[in-house]
Sequence to fold (343 residues):
Amino acid sequence: MSDPARKSIAQVRAEAREGALGARIEAQVEDVIRKEARNGKPFWEVKLRDGGDAMTLKAWSDTPQFQTCEDLAAGELVRVEGEFAVTPFGLDAQRWSLQRLEPAEAEALFAGDEATRTIAKADFSLVTELVASLDDLRLKALADAFLADFGARFRRAAAARFNHHAFRGGLLRHTAQMMKSADALCGVYPQLHRDLLLVGVLFHDSGKLWEMCPAETGFEIPRAVRGELLGHISIGIELVNALWRKLPLKDWDDLEPASEDVRLHLLHLIASHHGELAFGSPVEPKTPEAIALHYIDNLDAKMEMICTAYEKQPEIAPGIFDRVRALHVSPVRPLVKKITSRP
Fold:
């Protein structure tokens, strides 16, 4: 393989559907596990993750890669060059070699490729523009305080660990899409309180900044005691209350509705956004904004899941992809949007 192009894991996975290809990926080692096959033959299993996807390498004892993995540790940043193919078990690599990245290369990896940086920048700009458009001074001040104090953490947090937007920066992507949808929906249903709904979207998953946020130099979505014991809904309510207490509320005593009513309605959006008690919400949606937020959240999550399935799930029949458990279906390739005439 001569001069293979550097690609993300997701790009390699998509292109390898058409056949094996030579490529170079850069990623972080998530775990290195020594195992034994049924016949007793030892091998290393190396789990890799970059900003949008993950894959596993295997190094058998009779290959040069086996020795390479002996002193490999979780957290290291590496370049893997090899021949990649999609198998029934997922993305696989053959005849691969591995090198550690230099510090400058590591910094570039965490920043993401040009496409990733462009999308993240646009998403954050959209969020800040919508916050700037708010009329309610209290909700605007609350949102501004959140972005000022926790913007960096917000940019790198994941929205989930497995099902949707489960990657570094996934929460920003999810939130920006939801805020865009919410803003559009307010034009369809003018009875919705636009400011309340937009800020509710911004804060609905804010607890995930402490439940599933990668380190500054990491792609892994870790587990933390605070997140495990309280969950993101409880943490999000705690965060809003902490920021709310710092606002100059006395300056707005003459505003209607009363500040306390605004706070309670916002907390209700966070508490009820899962929609049902069985899905973890301590209370079900009881206001127009709460109902809207729940369905916007569900729609964005499911759209991301099915679009990701087209990229990652094996095609089990022409136009039919392997079952996605979270969607309870086997996705079918969508109708193409472009209309062309027959030759």
User: Anything to note?
Assistant: The longest strand covers residues 21-36. Residues 159 and 171 are 4 Å apart (CA to CA).
